[in-house]
């Protein structure tokens, strides 16, 4: 493993069709590589954001024949970079919902790991602004830890970041880096984005990579931006602000062990009786 590499987070505004969106993403990925990016990461649903479900159903493709994924593979081979495709909507062959799927692509153009978003964004964030991701997407059912030349990468997507036990388990399984590609809403972004990502980095002693969508999409949907790279001590190394572009930061892998040595909370975890389990046992006993 190399001890130091450059991470790059691309920040785009996905359109409702793949072709124009991928034209922008391709340019940003090439520029990020020219700026030294070794691991280049894109946001959640980065290749297309079609807000109308019936229209989306006519545009979303199977993984095996996905034009955008093929382009990302070609970009990896062209640039020689590792590319984390933050996520894309992928058609499933056995249902009417999609997968919100992330892909890790090697410089040879091979998909070496994939992850389906586990936690669905079913929320009411503000008056008149509600989301029901589970209506269009089927949640994943397993976590993914991927090998890279620099260490292990825990793959998550957006809303997952509100479920800290997922990140704890990834860190305990050996993750040095955690990725949370996102299309965060503006209200929740202003209130929670930086806090949540810094917390996930600090409590697990991991680097946190969060490439994010930004700006206004079709039908008035707005994304917060502020792609972040956070070190294991919680310091923000790069912030993408509110414009399309990319940010880079030097990642010193030794900082992971350094942070965990200072505050070894990852190793101080203890087993304890769950209050939920206790309550259930009490209820069962009462029923008997």
Sheet with most strands: strand arrangement: 5-4-3-2-1-16
Gyration radius over CA: 19 Å
Number of strands: 16
Low-confidence stretches: none
What is the name of the CATH superfamily? Carbon-nitrogen hydrolase
Question: What is the fold's blueprint, element by element?
Answer:
Elements: E1 4-11, H1 18-34, E2 39-41, H2 53-59, H3 67-79, E3 82-91, E4 98-105, E5 111-116, E6 122-126, E7 129-132, E8 144-148, E9 151-155, H4 164-172, E10 177-179, H5 186-204, E11 207-210, E12 214-216, E13 222-224, E14 228-230, E15 236-239, E16 245-252, H6 254-262, H7 265-268, H8 275-287
Parallel strand pairs: 1-2, 2-3, 9-10, 10-11
Antiparallel strand pairs: 1-16, 3-4, 4-5, 6-7, 8-9, 11-14, 12-13, 14-15
Helix pairs in contact: 1-3
Characterize the structure shown:
The structure is a single chain. It contains 8 helices and 16 strands. The protein has one domain: 4-Layer Sandwich (Nitrilase/N-carbamoyl-D-aminoacid amidohydrolase), CATH 3.60.110. A 6-stranded mixed β-sheet has the order 5-4-3-2-1-16. Strands 8-9-10-11-14-15 form a 6-stranded mixed β-sheet, with helices on one face. Strands 6-7 form a two-stranded antiparallel sheet. With 288 residues, it is α/β, with parallel strands linked by helices. Helix 5 (186-204) links the parallel strand 10 and strand 11.
Overview in brief:
This protein is of the alpha/beta class and 288 residues long.
What key attributes describe this structure?
six-stranded mixed beta sheet; 28% strand; 16 strands; 288 residues; 8 helices; Nitrilase/N-carbamoyl-D-aminoacid amidohydrolase; globular
């Amino acid at each position: 493993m190399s001890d130091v590499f450059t991470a790059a987070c691309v920040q785009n505004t996905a359109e409702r069709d793949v072709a124009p969106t991928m034209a922008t993403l391709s340019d940003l990925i090439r520029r990020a590589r020219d700026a030294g990016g070794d691991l280049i990461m894109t946001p959640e649903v980065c290749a297309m954001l079609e807000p109308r479900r019936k229209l989306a159903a006519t545009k979303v493709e199977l993984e095996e024949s996905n034009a955008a994924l093929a382009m990302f593979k070609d970009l990896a081979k062209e640039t020689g970079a590792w590319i984390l495709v933050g996520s894309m909507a992928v058609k499933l062959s056995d249902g009417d919902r999609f997968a919100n799927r992330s892909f890790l692509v090697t410089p040879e153009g091979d998909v070496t790991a994939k992850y389906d978003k586990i936690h669905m964004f079913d929320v009411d964030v503000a008056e008149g602004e509600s989301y029901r991701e589970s209506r269009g997407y089927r949640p994943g059912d397993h976590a993914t830890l991927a090998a890279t030349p620099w260490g292990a990468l825990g793959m998550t997507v957006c809303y997952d970041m509100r479920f800290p036990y997922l990140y704890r388990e990834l860190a305990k399984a050996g993750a040095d880096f955690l990725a949370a590609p996102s299309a965060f809403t503006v209200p929740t972004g202003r209130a929670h984005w930086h806090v949540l990502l810094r917390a996930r980095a600090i409590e697990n002693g991991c680097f946190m990579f969060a490439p994010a969508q930004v700006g206004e999409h079709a039908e008035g949907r707005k994304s917060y931006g502020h792609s972040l790279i956070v070190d294991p001590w919680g310091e923000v190394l790069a912030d993408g602000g509110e414009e399309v572009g990319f940010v880079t930061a030097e990642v010193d892998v030794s900082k992971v062990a350094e942070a965990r040595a200072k505050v070894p909370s990852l190793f101080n975890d203890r087993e304890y009786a769950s209050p939920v389990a206790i309550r259930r046992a009490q209820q069962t006993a009462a029923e008997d």
